[in-house]
Design a protein that fits this description.
By secondary structure, chain A is an all-alpha fold. Chain A is 77% helix and 0% strand. Chain A is built from 13 helices and no strands. With 326 residues, chain B is an all-alpha fold. The chains are: A mainly alpha (291), B mainly alpha (326).
């Protein structure tokens, strides 16, 4: 039976499959070009000689490739690029560590422990997701000034950590819930405290989820603009995002230098994101199962 | 666990020994206390952070919204003005304009980024050669800082030196449009926003797709379902809960988005891209009217809260209904 009716069907099925496969690739490639082009254009402007930036008919490919713009930005006496870069690294790493520690504690309480106010805690985290950033900045500036945390890496790290927490706590809560509770129960019977169970058993098992969360926190704090713009005005404390803003103010038409700086700012975070991309998908998958 | 240290051990230090004996019991008491209230210790840092960064600013903004606080005037001379700011807002045409533009910006950008994100997630969930590399490529716009993305697009949109107009001229278009002019600026911003935000949708939906158990597809295939049927009757319905959450998060994000419109157009030309965050920022920090800006911020929050709660309510109702039928 299968021989009689199966053969023409098989051919049609195969042709259809090839058609869909080709169409898939076509759509994917089209979007890949659109997704990549601005990124390419940033790097292309950074590596092309400065005269290319004032061509009235810019071409896709640069007239030649040079590292002059990059070198100029790194060594420029007017803009302490390396200082900005260092500040960004310090603040992003500090934020990432704080997010992992504080976020996993909150998520563990929400996932495993029964306490009064648990529902309120969970619901207010969702509510906070809805705050307009613009609502926060004026009073945030006032309170950070009172606490002496303006122009300080700690001020930014605290603000960035808190902004990341609601999403992180919910994500990790889902992740923790996908880990069987029996392991902790066994450890607790052996005399381990809740805190010990969290640190020694839950966290190692949740490593991929933590990697996802760490990636998000790192990228978000590296890329943040508005809060840094308001909280930092001392040049030695500036991070890359606002350092670039002051570069624009000083050299309004130096596109080559500007995009050299943009490239140096963007590459580290893009590399981090690409390296950790599979944890991001994996972490969200586990987090969403019981989310 | 801790053993008393006195007793058999010869007493060498007299009192020191007895305080060593007291210390563990004090420590035990502390650790018992911590263990009993562990949940509160674990959430305390989150609560402190939220109190400083969210709750205090929210309360202070609400307070400011009932005053005539100006940036240029000392706090002491600020007066309580009741609901004056709120009634002013209702009668200011710019506010309604900003609200309308914000709605267009949010709905259009979220709609397009969702469709693109879903398409790519479905395509990249198949067994394709080079799949991992392609996924990495598609998340690049997410990783690029918003201010860098905005600067790059603004450079590409440039009338004189921009690559987009140059490419169009190469294709024979003599007068390429002015991308950031009054007619097109809003759509150009939407394009940038879609470019920046579709990877988030793609990653979340991809995660949702991978959480669908493979047995369901096997069972459906055994029952004779073809690809399209599997998509309509298994994939999309099971994806709906996570898709609704990702649309909610993306909408809140787009409604509050500041950096892209600020760097590309600052609300111009002639108010064509004056979305609510830009309008509020301009009123507060450029115009110096903190009271009015605070009122705008409070109203934005209330709008998001209402829309978000209705949406979540609908989501939970559907989830419950599904839970009962399955």
């Amino acid at each position: 039976m299968a021989v009689v009716t199966g053969k023409p069907k098989f051919n049609r099925w195969r042709a259809e499959k090839i058609f869909w496969r080709t169409l898939s690739y076509f759509i994917i490639l089209l979007f890949a070009v659109i997704a990549l082009f601005p990124f390419y254009w940033m790097i292309r402007t950074a590596l092309a000689p400065a005269k290319d930036s004032f061509s009235l008919r810019p071409q896709i490919l640069p007239s030649s490739i040079t590292l002059e713009n990059i070198e100029q930005v790194i060594t420029s006496p007017n803009v302490p690029f390396l200082k900005y870069f260092q500040n960004s690294v310090v603040i992003s790493i500090l934020t990432t560590l704080l997010v992992i520690i504080v976020g996993s504690w909150g998520a563990y309480a929400l996932a495993r422990l029964n306490f009064k106010g648990r529902r309120v805690f969970g619901a207010s985290l969702l509510l906070i997701q809805m705050f307009p950033g613009i609502l926060l900045i004026i009073p945030l500036y006032v309170i950070m000034t009172r606490l002496g945390l303006t122009n300080s890496p700690w001020g930014l790290a605290i603000a960035y950590t808190t902004i990341n927490l609601p999403f992180v706590v919910w994500l990790l809560r889902g992740y923790f819930m996908s880990i069987p509770a029996e392991l902790e129960d066994a450890a607790r019977i052996d005399g381990c405290t809740h805190f010990g169970a969290l640190m020694r058993i839950v966290l190692p098992l949740a490593a991929p989820g933590l990697a996802a969360v760490a990636t998000l926190a790192f990228v978000n704090s590296w890329n943040e603009f508005l809060i840094a713009y308001v909280l930092i005005n001392d040049d030695s404390q500036k991070v890359l995002s606002i350092g670039m803003a002051s570069y624009i103010d000083q050299f309004t038409t130096d596109y080559s230098g500007l995009f050299a700086m943009a490239t140096l700012t963007t590459l580290p975070v893009v590399i981090v994101f690409m390296l950790f991309q599979r944890y991001l998908v994996g972490g969200l998958t586990a987090g969403s199962v019981k989310g | 666990m801790q053993q008393p240290m006195g007793g058999e051990i010869p007493d060498k230090k007299g009192r020191g020994e007895s305080s060593d004996y007291a210390n563990p019991s004090f420590r035990t008491r502390v650790s018992n206390f911590v263990e009993r209230h562990i949940a509160y210790f674990l959430i305390a840092p989150t609560i402190i952070g939220i109190a400083i960064v969210n709750v205090y600013p929210l309360l202070d903004t609400v307070r400011l919204s009932f005053t005539d606080r100006l940036l240029s005037r000392p706090e002491e001379n600020t007066r309580f003005v009741g609901l004056a700011n709120y009634s002013n807002i209702l009668s200011t045409p710019d506010v309604w304009n900003a609200f309308k533009i914000s709605l267009i910006f949010t709905i259009t950008s979220v709609g397009f980024s969702f469709i693109i994100g879903l398409t790519l997630a479905l395509l990249l969930n198949q067994e394709l050669p080079g799949r991992a590399l392609l996924r990495s490529i598609f998340i690049i716009p997410w990783a690029v800082p918003a201010f860098v993305a905005s600067l790059t697009w603004s450079w590409m949109f440039n009338d004189q030196f921009g690559i987009i107009s140059s490419l169009l001229k190469g294709l024979g278009v003599n007068r390429p449009p002015i991308w950031l002019g009054a007619d097109l600026a809003l759509y150009s911003l939407i394009l940038v926003m879609v470019w920046k935000s579709f990877p988030f949708q793609m990653v979340v939906l991809l995660a949702g797709l991978q959480a669908i158990p493979g047995e369901l597809y096997e069972a459906a295939t055994v029952d004779g379902a073809v690809g399209r049927q599997r998509l309509w009757y298994i994939t999309l319905p099971l994806l709906k809960p996570i898709a609704m959450i990702s649309v909610l998060l993306a909408s809140i994000n787009a409604f509050n988005y500041f950096t892209i419109p600020w760097i590309l157009t600052r609300g111009g030309p002639a108010g064509a891209t004056n979305v609510l965050p830009i309008y509020t920022y301009t009123i507060g920090f450029v115009g110096g009217d903190f009271g009015f800006a605070a009122t705008m911020a409070v109203i934005m929050f209330i709008l998001i809260l209402i829309a978000g709660s209705l949406y979540l309510w609908q989501y939970l109702r559907e989830a419950e209904a599904n839970g009962q039928t399955v």
